[in-house]
Specification:
CATH architecture of the largest domain: 3-Layer(aba) Sandwich
Number of helices: 15
Distance between the termini: 25 Å
Strand content: 5-15%
Bound molecules: tryptophan
CATH superfamily of the largest domain: HUPs
Strand order of the largest sheet: 6-7-8-9
Mean pLDDT: 92
Order of helices and strands: EHEHHEHHHHEHEHHHHHEEEHEH
Number of domains: 3
Structural class: alpha/beta
Length: 431
């Protein structure tokens, strides 16, 4: 539990292309292999409904994106991999968050504002063709993140505003109902390339300039051959600046390979030869995955089973957490006594920190609840002062201090992570 929680979603609105692979699928799979993180990967199909009203396309895209993630090496045993619409707690949480989010805040969301501005510039009614779903998009995204109290959300710069809104929702809810949510942070992937498309603009479905990730070999070759280049002849030196072909190569090649191509450009490599090189390099990385992808696409039942198992894991967290949230806001069993100290979590009686020294000469502390149940156990510190500093951090910041203390603390394995969070927050509240 003392590990950092990462969460990533992909909207199921299209066929994955090389840009999605380089910008999102590949880094997220690499990330999932790290030992010190707990990660959540999901197919954002409720989000797809905002943009797409073709049911078969949503189904197809869900299958394609799930198969791509798995083919790229995502291990569903290691991570929590699920489909958003299998978690009914998410739309329920969306409503709770809707009620603590200012309408004015949503008015300022980029995607919504862009649509409105476009209408105004075209002389149309500002809200023409703008669905309430588009308006509410940031709240649904906030629910995705807060449902699992993710600490870090790896996103491109265009999504930072959404993470900030999720932080605000966490604060507003916590302020009204007690500390339930950890405000998430955006993890900006600066070293991850934005891939240019066939025409040199950013590779994007909306520009119709994409190369499908798992295009058959022959089609991949043709598409790469159609990437725009300048008209310099074979033998004429070529510049790498502004060369889409070069940038695409770079996203797949090692630094040495990239340096070689840079040299070949300077030496006047023919565009046809350069394209052949780029094609072979990309195909070398993609080909093994393509096989796995095709096998998965031919076995939708297998993917369905994997997703349902992932949803079950996710709901082991979401269902009890939602139960606590329902109670926190006052949606309660009427037989339970009405209390006006409505905002406090009372599941765990006030826990205490115990500090002690072991035979190894080091200083330790642990957090135990009133029944003597162990919640957190520290590693050995060299001095009591060091131990005290960690305790102070927990006392002032509650559960949000946990990521920073990840290598100094261990959570008890027989207590639910959410209960430990609740205990830490309770101690905050008590001060
Ligand atoms: N908005 C993201 C996209 O357009 C997808 C998404 C939905 C997401 N919910 C999320 C990403 C939560 C990160 C966290 O691709």
């Amino acid at each position: 539990m003392s590990s950092t929680r990462f969460l990533t979603g992909i909207t199921t609105s299209g066929t994955p292309h090389l840009g999605n692979y380089v910008g999102s699928i590949r880094p997220s799979v690499r990330h999932s292999l790290r030992a010190d993180v707990e990660s959540f990967y999901f197919l954002a199909d409720y989000h797809a409904l905002i943009k797409i009203d073709e049911p078969s396309r949503i189904q197809r895209s869900t299958l394609e994106i799930a198969a791509s993630w798995l083919a790229a090496g995502l291990d569903p045993e290691r991570v929590i991999f699920y489909r958003q619409s299998d978690i009914p707690e998410i739309p329920e949480l969306t409503w709770f968050l809707t009620c603590v989010t200012g309408k004015g805040v949503l008015n300022r969301a980029h995607a919504y504002k862009a649509s409105v501005d476009k209408n105004i510039n075209a002389g149309d009614d500002p809200d023409s063709d703008v669905s309430a779903g588009l308006f509410m998009y940031p709240v649904l995204m906030g629910a995705d993140i807060l449902m699992f109290n993710a600490h870090k959300v790896p996103v491109g710069r265009d999504q930072i505003q959404h993470i900030e809104m999720a932080r605000d929702m966490a604060h507003s809810f916590n302020h009204r109902y007690g500390e339930h949510f950890v405000p998430p942070e955006a993890e900006i992937e600066d070293d991850v390339a934005t891939l240019p498309g066939l025409d040199g603009r950013k590779m994007s479905k909306s520009y119709d300039n994409t190369i499908p990730l798992f295009a058959p070999r022959e089609q991949l070759k043709k598409l790469i051959a159609s990437i725009v280049t300048d008209s310099s002849a074979p033998g004429e030196p070529k510049t790498v600046e502004g060369s889409a072909l070069f940038q695409i190569y770079q996203a797949f090649a090692t630094p040495e390979e990239t340096a070689d191509l840079r040299q070949a450009y300077a030496d006047g490599i023919a565009w046809g030869d350069a394209k052949q090189l780029v094609f072979e390099r990309i195909d070398r990385e993609i080909a093994p995955m393509r096989e796995a992808y095709l096998a998965l696409m031919n076995d939708p039942a297998k993917i369905e089973t994997i997703l349902l198992a992932g949803a079950a894991k996710a709901r082991q967290i979401a269902t009890p957490f939602m139960g606590r949230l329902r109670s926190a806001v006052g949606l309660r069993d009427l037989r339970a006594q009405v209390s006006n100290r409505a905002t406090k979590t009372t599941k765990i009686a006030k826990p205490v920190y115990k500090q002690y020294r072991e035979r190894d000469g080091k200083f330790y502390f642990k957090l135990v609840d009133t029944d003597g149940r162990l919640l957190l156990q520290s590693m050995g510190f060299d001095s009591p002062k060091d131990a005290g500093q960690s305790i102070a951090l927990l006392q002032t910041q509650g559960a949000s201090a946990l990521p920073a203390l990840a290598d100094k603390l261990q959570a008890s394995s027989d207590v639910d992570a959410q209960d430990i969070h609740a205990a830490l927050q309770l101690m905050l509240d008590a001060d």
